Amino acid sequence: MSRFRLSQLAQPGLVVAAVGLTIAALQLGYQHSQRPLPPPPPGGFAYVANAADNSLWIFRYDLNSGWLDFTSTAVNAGRFPAVLASHGPYLYAGNAFGASLSGWRADPESGKLQELPGSPWPAGKGLAHLVLNPAGDTVYGSNSSANSLGAWHAAANGRLSPLPGSPYGGLDSPAGLALVGGFLYVAESAANRISRYPVNTDGSPGAVAASTPSNKAPDSLGSDPGGHYLFACNHDSNSLGAWRIGNDGSLSALPGSPYATGVHPASVRVDASGHYIYVANEDSSSLSAWRLDDTGLRPLAGAPFATGKAPHTISLSPDGRYLYTANSGDKTLSGYQINPSNGQLTELPDSPFATGYGPADVGFIP
Description:
Layout: H1 12-27, E1 43-50, E2 55-62, E3 68-76, E4 81-87, E5 90-95, E6 100-106, E7 113-115, E8 121-122, E9 127-132, E10 138-143, E11 148-154, E12 160-162, E13 174-180, E14 183-188, E15 193-198, E16 210-213, E17 218-223, E18 229-234, E19 239-245, E20 251-253, E21 259-260, E22 265-270, E23 276-281, E24 286-293, E25 296-299, E26 305-306, E27 311-316, E28 322-327, E29 332-338, E30 345-347, E31 353-354, E32 359-365
């Protein structure tokens, strides 16, 4: 994709005149063949994991408009890259079928990716969810097929090394992860529960502190920026669980929880203000949306919002102004601007944006 189109002149008189002007310029000692290109718009780069063709596509991201421009650069990833996570210039991909974790360093000018030494690193089977701590020096991954949790230390150069004892077993189809206030929350899909682990000083998870019942097949987890609430997509019961997080990390259900969603909710995100919650409904091709207040969740006017086919994940731009869904069913990304006053979504011009096969996730590097 490109926002620029080249046109050609086909009138002989104009061509002759142009040649004459060029010769005259050379005779006058004109030294400049062209003006310098304008700088790119402020923003960064967006990376799309195309799970079905094992690739990453790179887009330039426009901070002013949310527009995505494909850079014509693609990277071979591991087998079935299902999830992305980033911190600083480093991007990581969990390869669900390859039982590995790949890592790259992004060039700040071009966005091109240079694979990190040692990548890919071994992981458990079914690695489909990743989360980094705020410092960016610890990476956690849930290995759903191996019933385990992986944890790695990320060095200053982005290279990963497993934490002592990793992977940690004894889980029951672990899925979504959320790191909030010194606790790691893990959705155990087959057990219909959310388990809470204290995080040790070295980043490793301690013994499970408590488990909270959830509706059927909890999958993606999300929390608000302030760390006061936790949300879980209950994939097989078409609902969203919502809890208030206590000072000790305990979970108390919000009034009205669980809330009805579309068919097979697959991803949940809270906007940067902490006021609006969005859920991607994979088999309804829609986004459910609510406003959060002390009484619970209230549906937004106009919701659900239409997306491309089979939205698998929701991603927010680094500044929180734009929301994107990776639509695994039609090889696209849908992009929206979030109205900060009411949470309404307005689809971006040129959305949906074309991707590779089976887009699974989007990661940003500012």
